[in-house]
Amino acid sequence: MSERCWLNRQKLGIIHLLAWAISTEVFIHLERIDEVDEVYDYQAAEINYLQTLQDFDAFLTLIPIS
User: Which of 2-6, 10-14, 16-20, 42-46 is predicted least confidently?
Assistant: First the structure.
């Protein structure tokens, strides 16, 4: 296996781990929005909503453009 191919595989592995971590954060924020909605804490819901959008935008940057 060439060095370039090996580096590409390493890069893909890192991107996969980063995507997994970011998607986990998105779901954590969504769960928090659901929890705070039950107690009518709209400020916390808004904060988690904005954090969800930031994390989702970060996730989208990992998708290669062809």
Answer: 2-6
Over residues 33-46, the pLDDT tens digits come to: 999 988 999 999 99
For residue 32, the tally of other CB atoms under 10 A from its CB is: 18
Task: Report residue 26: phi and psi, to 5°.
Answer: -60, -45
**CA 25 – CA 4 distance, rounded (Å):** 32
Report DSSP letters for 5-65, one per residue: HHHHHHHHHHHHHHHHHHHHHHHHHHHHHHHHHHTT-HHHHHHHHHHHHHHHHHHHTTSPP
> Residue 65 corresponds to which tokens in the numbers above?
């453009």
Using DSSP's 3-state secondary structure scheme, residue 2 falls into: coil
pTM of the model: 0.77
CA distance 22 to 8: 21
